[in-house]
Amino acid sequence: MELPRSAPVVSSVSNIYLIVGSISNNYLIVSSESNIYLIVSTVFNIYLIVSSVSNIYLIVSSVSNIYLIVSSVSNIYLIVSSVSNIYLIVSTVSNIYLIVSSLSMSRPAPNTRTVSSVSNIYLIVSTVSNIYLIVSTLSNIYLIVNTVSNIYLIASSVSNIYLIVSSVSNIYLIVSTVSYIYIIVSSVSNIYLIVSSVSNIYLIVSSVSNIYLIVSTVSNIYLIVSAVSNIYLIVSTVSNIYLIVSSVSNIYLIVSTVSNIYLI
């Protein structure tokens, strides 16, 4: 490669640095004993190549395209983003991941079924232990990952985002809309539910001995705590506060209004 006369070159015992600068292009090459780095920057393009003993990284960014290739001993990653297409391929020893977003049919990979239409994109990737399903429409993106112990579901639409994670002991559900956010966490002993809207926030925590419920609106706050021997209920409105405590032998009720306080 012919270099401009103004390009500086610096060489040391173990490293070689090469910088090439011109009006529209900047090139940087760094070579050590085990690494080779290449950065190419033009007016519209940025290229980055990193090669080591086990890894090769390639990033290509232009006005309409972004390419990322990462190759190691067991992994190959490829991301291609253009104006209308997004491709993601991840290949490991036991897993094959393929995400294809286009407006036409795409040829399926081995052990993979891909269906693409003008408004829908369906992708199923099946390996020995994993099943991945990505469904993307004009307004929805669904991701299902099924392994031996895990199930992941992400569904994203214009106003909704759903996330379900199921393992041997955990189930997570996040649902986000324009005005709502839902979180459910279920493990062997715990269940958590958070629901947040413009005016409401709900929290449920269930363990072996406890159940917690918090409901908050613009004017109301509710708290329920249930244990093996205790039940607690707090209800707060603009003018009223209610507290119920129930144990094995005791029942307490406190009602407080703007001008009154009651104890039973």
Automatic annotation (TrEMBL):
Keywords: Membrane, Transmembrane, Transmembrane helix. One of its GO terms (cellular component) is membrane. The chain crosses the membrane at residues 12-30, 37-70, 76-100, 121-145, 151-173, 180-205, 211-234, 241-263. Residues 14-254 form the G-protein coupled receptors family 1 profile domain. It comes from the Eukaryota. It is found in: Membrane. The keyword Nuclease does not apply. This is G-protein coupled receptors family 1 profile domain-containing protein.
